[in-house]
Specification:
heterodimer, A: 130 residues, alpha/beta, 5 helices, 30% helix, globular, B: 300 residues, two-stranded antiparallel sheet, 10 strands
Amino acid sequence: MKRLPADLHTMTTRSDGSLLAVADVSVADPIHQPTGGQVWAVGPHRLVVADVFTGWPLFVPHLAAGAMLVPYPGPYLLLTNRAQHTPLVLVQPDTYLAGHLLDKYAAVHGTDGIRQLVDGQDLVALGTAA
Amino acid sequence: MIATGGTWDPTDRPIYFIAGPDHDVLDAAVAGHSYVLVALNELPIGDPVGKLNRILDTGANVLLDSGIFEQAMRHKRAHGLDLYTTLALPPEQLDGWDRLWPRYLKVVKACQDRLWGYVELDQGGRDRKRATRSRLHAEGLAPMPVYHPLSDGLDYFTELAEGQDRMCAANLVQTPWRARRPLLATLTALRQAHPTTWVHLLGLTPDQFLYALDAGDSADSSTWSRALRYTEGYREIAAGQGFGLLPVDFKHRLGNRKGQPGYDPLHGRDKAVSMSAIGAAGRHRNWRNYTHRLQELGLS
């Protein structure tokens, strides 16, 4: 995957540790408790809690132009440099990891941008962000 | 069929073991990833059993590596030999063998009932590996044998797969990234004839190759701790593949380590270890979920 200018900045710049200081490093059961079949808005992104192979009816409608599909994301993926520039559609079937994705994001950005979507709500919003 | 020693559960798969210095894997086991590989050469000279027990006391599943590879690399550097000449030497000709053998016996005998498994002293080619393994069996030990695909021949894989319930596959660390694919494809094909024999991939990260190829039941690497060793910081992944870096201030402050003046746990290396351990646990869990789902769908 092409390296972003922000990634080059990360590689070449000394850190003050300020974001590490607020990062959540808990492995206990997450505070957010998503369940299978749910779609969450996380800032400009979507987290779809569904099977990667068969859950496509749930996540395909969110794949607007410019969005990136991200199956099996790691727990800090929403904090990457790329997430600041590209709307992401995360597909994570594991409710524990999905909860931690939300918790890790909330620890840095707060909970204001996190909410569960119901019945295809906000499909247009992601396309606009793209 | 020889039952290799250890507490392993054949249904608990696949597994990503994180490798590295003893203090880092201990901290990582506490922080949240409970599968660790400890190499004998990483344990302190004075009290290796005590340190290993401290790691085991966390509840971690520990795979003990023999330390023979590090011993061979030291010998290679000291004598100006190439890698493959060094790996073919009889173990008794390796510098430090006379200290490594009793140390290996001491540590394994003290902890064998608690270890997930322990790797044999795999030096000198397949005939010498057989001889060394016989000596270990005579000592009452049952290590995981090691298959070197670049030098052992296909029949040796069959010999191990039919005679042992677990084995390791080596040669992956020193093989260039692109050349690993044919090695993994070969292992995948060989495993199909022996699906019940557990294969551990030494020094391999479960990346996108292992999402595509069922080359092993477990793997280990130190990749999980890149953020501690390189300037790029923490690299996040998706489906085993690198996705990108985090903003610069997620990196720890250099020089900020436990025990040093002015240590600050919020900005320091220990917190970066915890974050890396959680990332490893995520990698492990995603790989496992993917593999199980393939099986459920009849795709593996």
